Fold these 4 entries.
Entry 1:
Amino acid sequence: MKNIQIQHFFDSATSTLTYVVHDPKTRDAVIIDPVWDYDPGSSKLSTGSMDKVISYLNELQLKPHFVMETHAHADHLSSSQLIKKIYPEIKVAIGERILEVQRLFNPVFNLTKDFNTFGVHFDILLKDEEILQAGSLKIKTLFTPGHTPACSSYLIEDALFTGDAIFMPDSGTGRCDFPAGSADALFDSITKRIYTLPDTTRVFVCHDYQPEGRELKFQTTVGEEKEKNIQLKEDTTKEEFVAFRKNRDTALSAPKLLLPSIQINIRAGHLPEPEDNGVSYVKLPLRQ
């Protein structure tokens, strides 16, 4: 065990957790799920959340190798490309099934014909169980689809970063009602990928919604999830979970930043190409 250091950053506007993982001896680091602040009312982008991450990297003189995206988020924009401007050598990595998500949303937003759905916006498309070396850090990719088809969890030493697959035990699991989401697939991802890891494996979640106003929590263990997760314990059957998840998801509202987030995040944090006035636009399809 290399005794990795993990620092969290919480964006209260979207309940999102960003992590910086680093080796204190070598200062090699990776950034997981960074946020680009967006105010939908004014359609203004700002960098307060990212600035805290950059300040931390600079303070400790860390060497970030990768931005690791657990999936194409539907609730916040990724600041990965802004980070690349500061650290030109950094690479943005995501599971290779992002291609499926790009193809799903291409017709939803009627994207331009030259929108590439072969993942070229990302630097690295990861395969299931692929090992990525970030200096002295070794990162194992575990595909954990269900919330979206392209969700991945990342195992670094004894720490698993689960994206939206699973939350703190009192919050349950990710929703499965996005296009190509699947409660069946999420059950398998959690029970066959996450719950088969040692019980002592630390779990770091991508969101904490602080039920009943409790304080922020973001770290648990596989053993605690198996014992206490309110939606999917070790002895929960697939039938029970799928029925619960489908019923629960029908009552959920769409994330506030769903439409702009998806359009930016399937582009790896790139804005759409500016139009002839030099301004980038996102599309908001109207439904009747």
Entry 2:
Amino acid sequence: MRTLLRRAAALLGLLPPALYAWPGMDVNLSDHRRLHMVGSIHMGTRNMSPLPARLLSLLRQATALVVEADITVGSPLASVPPVDTPLIDRLSCDHYRIFSGLCAEYQLDEQALSALPAWQVALMLQARQAERLGLRAAYGIDYQLIQAAREMDKPVIELEGPEEQLDLLLQLPDQGKALLEDTLRHWHTNARLLQTMIGWWLDNGPVNLDKSFPATFSADLYHYLMTERNLRWKGLLEDLPAGGYIVAVGALHLYGAESLPSLLRR
């Protein structure tokens, strides 16, 4: 009887969601489809490997692993051509001053970066910031999950794939100027956010979500990179056949009013 009451309460939303030592939550869809959604970090620290035994157990029981893209394959970024206008003519004086200071601090080639699209400069700066915090791609959560899935002979399903992700970046207005400006404007906030996620993955337990996931994108950029993608992913996840799935996406996709879990639960 107690088990039946708990199941009824869960169906009515009267019980809190299951808590995990990592940023994860469960979403049940119709037609016997169960999703365990994992807030991934694309780069991780050495002590974030191996993955938690409980998460690997869930993967072992899953029908398949779902990821944004298979990041173990080659990156298409090498094919992106440089731009004609140098970055100093594309940014405000204040933003370029911050950019120049970061290049000096992180030992980056300012002249070489100045010839790249703004979105690519933003990604390279973010990667260097993560490296300074001790993060490496080989310890990224989605990378480790993909490797584990292959060892278990589990299918890996992509929501986008590297080529589609590149197309999203290429379609940003002004070659992604807003993404670079947000990266420069929220530089220290991004560092604290990374540290928060590292702490959660290292078994420090769930964090105060309202305070730990501040807005670091402008409204238009957030809608394009987060909300619109969440809506597309929602359709893809709802088309999955019956079964249990581990769904690993960037942690910011799991929280907020237009988060992927909230869209799926509507």
Entry 3:
Amino acid sequence: MLNHTADLGVLSPTHSITARADKVRREVSPRLDGNRRAELGQFLTPEPVAADMAAMFGELPADVRLLDAGAGVGSLTAAFVTEALARPVTPRSITVTAFEVDPGFADLLGQTLDDCRAACEAAGVRFASRVIEDDYVLTSAEPVLSVIEGFNCAILNPPYAKISSASRWRLALRSQGIETVNLYSAFVALALNQLEPGGELVAITPRSFCNGPYYRPFRQHLLDNSSIERLYVFESRKKAFRDDAVLQENVIFQLRKGARQAERVRLETDSGEARQVPFEEVVRPGDKHCFFRLTISPEDAALAERVQAMPCSLVDLGLKVSTGRIVDFRAREFLRKDPGDGTAPLLYPAHLRDGGVRWPIPDFKKSNAIAVTPRVEKELVPPGRYLLAKRFSSKEEKRRLVVSVYDAEVPAAFDNKLNFYHRDGAGLPEEIALGLAAFLNSTAVDDYFRQFSGHTQVNATDLRNLPYPSLEDLERLGRHAPVGQEAIDAAVATIL
């Protein structure tokens, strides 16, 4: 429970509502219990971000019915009311339904709504509000939905937390026809369902939904049920929530329920770039994965066009990429610090260094080897040359794609934090492996990858979805085997 007793000063109508809500946010955030914040997965919205989100709404209905799910201290509602009252034509009425599961936040949210009421009354706008101190996902799955449907506006900064497959939240979502893996995408999908046709939704979320297999149903849900009107990308991980330790890359998006997808979408960034881009530049026609590609600048769009012109898929090349088969905490009894009789090399991401592999690593905190037993043997790859790619890059690394060639002289094992390229489970020809390494390690391909990947994870599906050069071009790159970033980039530029 939070106890906020600071003097916030005297309310002035309209613009000071958001200032007061933001003062509450700034005073509350440092005092939040870290475990509780992790449990709720919520980060309170700074005033500038809230104001930008409110300004995204188009022409407002005469009678606004606003949903703010995961409302926190009410920053988004305050920004919305401030924006609505500042417009040349103000609404006739504003009715707010705000969900907040944390009792301390709910108390402060009530104060913000009182401020909104006072400002609306001063402007001659009727105002009503309701705070529902309950779980938004679970409440949405209850049989009686009349209190949480029929909205014509929704503004959201939803919580960020994974949902396990067996949780009551996952079951509740399935009852609503929603399949997703994180609370933020669950909140957005539910809010979209609860909007009436033509209603608008503006939300700030991580960019992680833009790619990856687990978010595909969510992406499809957005595309099937709304028109994507506007996307605002934060190029810096820290800019959206600079007061908090948030390392997600964020995006604000504006949706219109039930509308036919607009041919062009407004794409903006926090660096000032703004473009009207064809929607097919965001979601490519025929892309079964429905990846969202965010080409921030004309240069990004030109790069995307060049990479997408690559002639081959992995299937065309006769290659595959898989995730490493060893989950170390499930194989503890077989792990060995150092290689020895009856063991096979075990490679982790830390073994990948500067385009090559350093193995074994002395005094390695993980394991360098795994005991070869009947249970482990089936998880080994045969001797051969493989291309290894990190599934996770550290926060400090500048690159998303970090790949190295590994020549396995004996059967070897790969940790599941690595992806590996192979040919039907066996190694690659030398020139193909070296050429593929040069292609993936190039700055151009890394920049292209970032257009749809807003987080540090590199899924095997992402790698399968990349366009690739022809075998002939890969072999030519491999024969020259460029060393150093400048040489790699120059060599790859000849085929892009």
Entry 4:
Amino acid sequence: MPEEIQIADKVGSVSANRYAEIVAELRKLVETASRIQFTIGDHALEVEPMRESGGQERGEELFTVKDSLFRLAEDIGVSYSTVKETRWTASRWPKDRRVSGVSFTVHKILASVADEEERFAAVLTPPDGKSRWTPDDAKRRTGRQVENPVTPQEKVSAIHTLARDEEVAATVTSDLLRRPTVVAQVKQEDKVRVVEELTRDETVAAKVTTGLLRRPDVAFRAMSDDTARHQVNHAQVERGRQAREHFDQTNPVAPAIRSIDRSVEFLDLVTACHAFVAAAGRVVPGMRDRQLGDDERTVVHENVARVRATLDWIETAVDTGKVDVDGELARLLQGD
């Protein structure tokens, strides 16, 4: 038990008391460093005052400004970016508005608050429940990404930032999609969008669709959609047509098959005629002593005319081999 208490009272490899001493000592150094950085910024402003009001400077990269700041940076042994950064931060914080105990880093982050009064009030008001500003708290205040994400949204933002590289994003997405519990939490409409994006490639789409249609419930629901059902039927007809064309063009037995096909067509035609005659022979006697109304007779006469036209068409096709349909016959066959 005593050992557990001792471990609990330690921060890293030092005791809680020693950690507090280190923090106090480093805060003094940070405050000194902040004064130094502000001093560099103030002198940089003296060398090159900001050219626009409000601390925003459109001509920042003009040669005259950059040249002067670059020379100052080299003469004092720091980077140009440091001089440029401290100069801009100093311009956003007049000396009487800088807060002792708040690091230069926090001042720099809060410097992006556009409204002066809001900015000056913000630095004096740490987040609820905290006695001092931290860089991450300042980033939250200004809408920037934090270094140590805590909330789900912050973690999502961090992931998006890390996944800006397409290769990294692809790997992360693949890994996440393998986690059933993750996929289960995705909204249905978002899942649909993901599948649509992933199946833009025709090969992938065909493979996925084939697999899904092997699932009876999925196939049933898909075929309940008129457009989907029409497309499937069209695809089947088109596939059959293409297969037949390929067979006719490449298979050595195709001529013999075509001869058989003609025989089948002959049999189909004879069967159709026989079926019509048989049906008429069965139906007409049943009309004995029955008088049809005017509308009924009109319908029957129209259909008889269609039958006559069809019989003439059959005779022409049989005698001449021509199966073309003229406009009048097409109109009759369609019932127009």
